[in-house]
Amino acid sequence: MQSIFTGKSKKPTDADLAAALGTTYPYWNELAEFTRKEYPAATEDWHFTSEKYGWSYRISDKKRVLVYLLPRDRFFKVALVFGQKATDQVMESIVSKSIREELMAAKAYAEGRGIRIDVRDKSNLKDLKELIRIKLAN
Hints:
Blueprint: H1 14-21, H2 25-38, E1 43-48, E2 55-60, E3 65-71, E4 76-82, H3 84-91, H4 97-105, E5 108-109, E6 112-119, H5 125-137
Antiparallel strand pairs: 1-2, 2-3, 3-4, 4-6, 5-6
Helix pairs in contact: 2-5
């Protein structure tokens, strides 16, 4: 499923995002704020990949993307990539079994294993914050 924002010429505004995400908009803000608090030196920006994938929001350090926030229609996805050390920590963490299984099922690339988690309500925010902490520690 592609971004709700596919027009290259128009970077999404906060108002656009709030309208697109609806009731999940506060959760987007909560996760972005959490990441900024945990890593104050982070940079943030919208990034246009292609017409097929549209706009995504990236929170990065100097060398890598820490968290991808991917807007959809009335929800969003959080994408994270974990190297082996971080993957091992996730597997030993309090993160839900379903997320750990999804991570282990993900194909391993040179940069690590990537997962995308839907945010449709607040039920997985605790797990997502733990994943962000692990990502930042590695």
